[in-house]
Automatic annotation (TrEMBL):
Xref: Gene3D superfamilies: alpha/beta hydrolase
Membrane-crossing segments per the record: 12-28, 40-61, 68-89, 101-120, 140-160
GO molecular function, one term: carboxylic ester hydrolase activity
PANTHER family xref list: DIENELACTONE HYDROLASE DOMAIN-CONTAINING PROTEIN-RELATED, POLYKETIDE TRANSFERASE AF380
This protein's name: Alpha/beta hydrolase
UniProt keyword annotation of Membrane present: yes
Keyword set includes Transmembrane: yes
Domain Xaa-Pro dipeptidyl-peptidase-like, residue spans: 218-328
Family per similarity comment: Belongs to the AB hydrolase superfamily.
Organism for this UniProt entry: Solirubrobacter ginsenosidimutans
């Protein structure tokens, strides 16, 4: 009993209570507050990891050195604070829903843990060091170790935002020519979008970026509509009015594309031999992947194609000092979304049959990815068009006339 009482220090009590609150939110988010169309077991793995991690940390906390206790508090606190902040932001935009209440509590708990992480080194400074030289050695080593740990936490925090960004309201359709439609992905998730029938016989699926919804691709839909193309502009799963789990890397979106194609094939005005796709950012990754697996898309424009998985980064850059941090980010996305990444885009570019126009903006890593994909395409009909003056997916804004001519000419040549 005395040993147990000795371990009940204020630090341990605060860590145990705050970690328990954060765990409560994680379980609420995974099971009770899950989004429409999300199965009860989809987030079971993430919930199990959160449970085991929290129980293990609480058990070890009073037994480890102050530096390890501070690291535990900083890790759990930062992740809880990021997750909770997203719920607070949601409350600022809309009314309370789903797991917002426990999300706010998690933010408070996360803040307490971060403060605890700062307090512990101060409270125990110099403890355990037998000499001044050793104390200074610990302090010098603590600097790079802390920086590495902070970067790892930042990458994991970024991953949380990739899977927990809340939906924003969808306004009115771009014009009266668009109608609200609903259809199902091939795994049963219900999707929502706008559809404008074709006037020239060809129809294009327009797919937005990872953190957005259909409204982010309206300008590209209008561009195509001016040339008579039919347009299906929908919210990917977890975004806008569509069911499912948010995933900014597009994991699972391939099911949505299959459902979109199936929906178009039910329309009497749609020629199934003249269906194309135009994707932005994550939407580009997903359509390139879909074209590499199926023949339904007869021409694809990928604007901002880059990486949809850890393997895509590894194939471009090899193993570098940054690789472990990327691995941590993608592993966190896997756990918090309950989804798996698709096949490497390099393979999809190499094995696809549909003509592919890759559009990149600027000369940073996006450009490098597209140069790489163009190089591995072999004899496949793939062209890479770079706009150095444009930002990511900003070609239509930076060079509107040139962009419209290039993209519509590509579709005219390949969709008839």
């Amino acid at each position: 009993m005395p040993a147990k009482l000795a371990r009940r220090t204020p630090e341990t009590v605060v860590f145990t209570a705050a970690t328990g609150v954060a765990l409560l939110h994680a379980l609420d988010d995974a099971f009770l507050g899950r989004q429409p169309g999300v199965g009860f077991m989809q987030h079971a793995l993430g919930a199990l990891v959160a449970l085991l991690g929290a129980v293990g940390a609480v058990s070890l906390f009073p037994r480890v050195r102050p530096s390890a206790r501070a690291a535990f508090a900083l890790l759990f606190g930062s992740l809880a604070l990021v997750n909770g902040a997203l719920h607070i932001k949601h409350l600022g935009a809309e009314s309370m829903a789903a797991s917002d209440l426990t999300g706010v509590l998690a933010a408070v708990a996360g803040g307490a843990l971060v403060l605890l992480a700062a307090y512990i080194p101060f409270r125990h400074r110099g403890a355990g060091a037998t000499s001044t030289r050793r104390r200074w050695a610990y302090r010098v080593l603590a600097v790079p170790a802390t920086l590495v740990g902070l970067l790892m936490i930042v990458m994991m925090g970024v991953a949380l935002t990739e899977t927990h960004k809340f939906r924003t309201p969808i306004g009115a359709a771009p014009s009266g020519d668009y109608r609200e439609v609903a259809f199902k992905a091939d795994d049963g998730v219900k999707l929502s979008g706008w559809y404008r029938p074709t006037r020239n016989g060809a129809t294009v699926i327009v797919l937005h970026g990872g953190g957005g919804d259909r409204t982010g691709a309206v300008a590209h839909a209008r561009m195509l509509a001016r040339h008579g193309y039919g347009v299906l502009l929908y919210d990917a799963r977890g975004r806008g009015r569509s069911e499912g789990t948010q995933n900014s890397f597009g994991w699972g979106w391939g099911h949505d594309v299959t459902g979109a194609v199936a929906f178009l094939k039910t329309r009497p005005e749609v020629d199934p031999r003249r269906i194309g796709g135009l994707g932005l950012s994550t939407g580009a990754d997903v359509l390139v992947e879909a074209a590499g697996q199926h023949d339904d898309l007869r021409a694809v424009v990928g604007d901002g194609t880059a990486a949809g998985s850890f393997e895509d980064w590894r194939r471009l850059q090899g193993i570098t000092g940054f690789t472990p941090f990327l691995a941590a980010e993608f592993a966190t996305v896997r756990l918090t979304s309950g989804a798996k990444s698709g096949p490497p885009l390099e393979e999809m570019v190499r094995h696809g049959h549909a003509p592919l126009l890759l559009v990149s903006g600027g000369r940073d890593v996006e450009y490098d990815f597209n140069v790489h994909y163009d190089a591995v395409a072999g004899d496949r009909d793939v062209e890479h068009w770079n706009l150095p003056q444009a930002g990511h997916t900003g070609g239509l804004h930076a060079a509107p006339r040139q962009y419209e001519q290039r993209v519509t000419a590509f579709f005219a040549a390949n969709l008839g």
